[in-house]
Amino acid sequence: MRNRGAGVKWKIVRVQCALLYTTSGGERRIRVHTMAVPVVSDLGEMYKAADGPACASLLARLAVEKTLTSRLEDSRQAVVSRVLAVLKEYKALYATQHRMPNKLVLPEGLKLVPLYALAVMKVRLLTVKASSLECLASVYC
Questions:
Q1: Contact between residue 136 and residue 125 where contact means Cβ atoms under 8 Å apart
Q2: Are 23 and 17 in contact (CB under 8 A)?
Q3: Domain ranges in the chain?
Q4: Which pTM does this prediction carry?
Q5: What is the pLDDT, as a whole number, of residue 108?
Q6: Residues 81-98, buried b or exposed e (16+ Cβ, 10 A)?
Q7: How far apart (Å, rounded) are the C-alpha atoms in residues 51 and 7?
Q8: Partners of 17 in beta bridges
Q9: Is residue 126 within 8 Å of residue 63, measured between CB atoms?
Q10: Residue 96's pLDDT band (boundaries 50, 70, 90)?
Q11: Fewer Cβ close by (within 10 Å): the C or N end of the chain?
Q12: Residue 87 — pLDDT band, cuts 50, 70, 90?
């Protein structure tokens, strides 16, 4: 999809994907997933509609995936850097508008995301030795 600069025409965009697979019994099946995604013209609207627990869940899943290919410290640092990127972006958008340059200003949905990120970093998977890493990763992934 390309944005041709003409502005937003639709309020919702629907995305559909199909997967063709064969069952263990040899039967061919098609699985279709359809998703309706809201479209916003202002980045602030996206931040206001963000779901904090869903963001934390995504952070946890990305951290677990990163532990499979790199060091634990790298995955923990990735969680921190992603949260900081969100905070910096929102502050750049709205700190001058709220006239609070030194305060943490977040929409209601994202106020607990830093706390969730700390909880993700304390999950046993991100604090154990490499010997039990593969066993725990099979549980979380």
A1: yes
A2: no
A3: 43-140
A4: 0.65
A5: 83
A6: ebbeebbeebbeebbeee
A7: 25
A8: 33
A9: yes
A10: low
A11: N
A12: confident
Rounded to whole angstroms, how far apart are CA atoms 60 and 54?
Answer: 10
User: Which 3 state secondary structure label does DSSP give 1?
Assistant: coil
* Other beta carbons less than 10 A from residue 126's beta carbon: 21
Query: What gap in Å lies between CA 17 and CA 34, rounded to an integer?
Result: 7
How far apart are alpha carbons 102 and 66 in whole angstroms?
A: 33
Q: State the pLDDT confidence band at 132, using cuts at 50, 70 and 90.
A: low
Closest among 23, 55, 53, 59 to 140, alpha carbons compared: 59
Q: Using the 8-state DSSP alphabet, how is residue 123 labeled?
A: S
Contacts of 138 (CB under 8 A, 6+ apart): none
Q: Which CATH class is domain 43-140?
A: mainly alpha
> C-alpha distances in angstroms, 92 versus 49, 57, 126?
18, 25, 31
Element (H, E) at 17: strand 12-22
